[in-house]
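Marked as duplicate of an earlier ticket. Keeping the data here for the record.
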Amino acid sequence: MKISFIALFFLLLTPVLFTNALLAQELLAEANTDKESTQKYNAWLKQRFSEQHQKLIPVIAVADMFYACNIERKIYPVTYSFTDLILIMDKKRLAEKLALCLGDDAVQSEVAINFGLLGCFHQQLVHLSTVERQQKMRLVKSAIHALSKNERKKSFTQCVTEQAINYLQ
């Protein structure tokens, strides 16, 4: 009797287990499809973001350099906003303005990199009060002079990358 009870138990349980296995397979297939869809969507977003990001980075770098250069050298009597420089002004015009402001200094020069860092940090500190921003900018200037050219380049690249991400949001 024990054997028949066990056989009966498995006989009754087999369809339930089989049904559960089929349901699990279907759910797994749906999850994989959803996962694949999500992966494709994420890949598309990354590609789209990457293209925009890569286009923005040089514009932001030039804008940072020009902004700080123009403040220090006063080539143009106007203080441009970063938003105007980055989103509105023509890229070629912005590059020409930077070249005029830099004069004999090359875009890859230490002077230009320093201007870029100053412009980038000025933009990142814009939310602070004038007094706080001036204090922080003094610290930034001290830090700039303490860093090697390679360290300044890396800092500038990182700062510009963060700015680009903010403009994409």
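See parent ticket for discussion. The two ends are 72 Å apart (CA to CA).
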